[in-house]
Design a protein that fits this description.
Layout lengths: L16 H20 L8 E2 L9 E2 L5 E3 L8 H4 L14 H5 L9 E6 L5 E4 H5 L5 E8 L4 E11 H8 L7 E6 L19 E5 H4 L5 E6 L2 E2 L9 E3 L12 E7 L6 H5 L23 E4 L5 H5 L2 E2 L23
Parallel strand pairs: 3-6, 4-13, 7-14
Antiparallel strand pairs: 1-2, 4-5, 6-7, 7-10, 8-9, 8-13, 10-11, 10-12, 14-15
Amino acid sequence: MLIKKSSDIPSSEITPKSTYFNRRQFMTGLGVAGAALLAGDKLLDIVSPEPVLAVTKLPGLKTTVKTDEKQTPYKDVTSYNNFYEYGVNKDDPAREAWRLKPWPWHVSVEGHVKKPRVYDIGEIMKMATLEERIYRHRCVEGWSMVIPWVGYSLSSFIKQVEPTSKAKYVEFTTLADPQQMPGVRRAVLDWPYTEGLRMDEALHPLALLCFGLYGQTLLNQNGAPIRVVLPWKYGFKSCKSIVKIRFVDYEPKTAWNKAAPNEYGFYSNVNPNVDHPRWSQKTERRIDGSGFLASIHKRETQMFNGYGEVAGLYSGMDLRKYF
């Protein structure tokens, strides 16, 4: 075998660093493609854009929830993220998440449920018809996006695993592997990351079990291969890279609520009338591709992020106390 020294290789033959990392992301994404190929009878096309950002296209999706608002550009949705398992900065997930191996992937269903077992990701994807929903996504730090997510109602999954009458809440747990997720090596939160919903919240038609965005499977930094999307709540409620779903009879402890209970309540509904202790929630900065202007032209925050159809879930509750 001939091994060349660095001095023997012309600079024109050296692979650029960006291409190298994109290639690694491409190879990782091939695992996601394997899972997606099991999703019903849909034929999934393997594509290789330049640079490689996503590899599995989900064709023929019906858009069931639409909006007239400008969608956030794909490059922003996939490069400006909160995912503390990869770091605390917004660009850390896009840079570090190539380490995640989203295939094979399994989700353990536990607790008060008639069908407790470990489910394969492909099996979960086949449980209902995938669809596209264009949702507003609001982050507690004051920025928002409009994203076309791909998935199906969380209620479809819940009904198929058949929770018992004792199940009052649903708890989600994210993978916590320091080899794949370097942020877990730091005690920023009490790992693994956990989140939870009251059962009626989880069964609401807007709650989405999500496998993709922009017609393609989720990238690692966006929570591959499976996450939830709850458009009327702040983004940290939407648990990513889920490995466990438990049906319990008590309000589960959640990651940010444990870390700072005076700042992050269990419900975490978007509410302009309840400020974060360190900043106002009355306005938001929409990330829509307008760059610097987006930081100047803020908009008023809407109650429940504009999804007033969920208001009945909280009838009679003091939303300043149950924030």
